[in-house]
Design a protein that fits this description.
The protein is built from five helices and eight strands; from the N terminus they run βαβαβαββββαβα. The protein is an alpha+beta fold and 191 residues long. The protein has an eight-stranded mixed β-sheet, sandwiched between helices. α2 packs parallel to α3. The longest helix is centred in the C-terminal third of the chain and has 18 residues.
Amino acid sequence: MSRGKPIATILKPLASNPFQCYLGTGLHTLGLLGWILEQTGRADVWVSTYSTSDAFLSGFARLRRKQLIDESALVADLKASQKTVKLYKLMQNCFDRVYLAMNHSKIVLVQNDRWTVSVISSQNQTYGDRAECTMVTTSQQAFLDLYSGLKTIIDNNSIELHGVFQRLAQRDRDNGSRHDDPLGDFRPFGY
């Protein structure tokens, strides 16, 4: 699951360690999410990031196919939207909802009827060899505070991507159709 170190050599099980921090290399968000879901079982997942990658999205899709993820949402940064547009189809296959907002936060929230797990990280959903810091907690208060902040961003300062490209294309087609020749694009030879 992880391209880095085995997570069990970095972190302890969630049930016995409700608050853990790590600063170093080798702990990647996708592997960490898989490790969390192995312990919690199927759960809802919210991801907030500045930037994501096809490797993270492909791994997220694998977790969904394993039926470890129920409902899911991604909040990515508006400034990174050029990359987001290129990854949009893959995002659509991974997440139930994808939002763009002025967002630099990097969190992962995992919740089901037994668990609330919050991950706060300096890492985007990309792979690299730089040192990153990560905090993992099962504190319900931490989860509620982060979820509340993320919901405020989604509700007040974001645009949902679901269907936005289709809506823009349809609007452009509708605007262009007013200028179409009623005879179509057919032109006889010699004209």
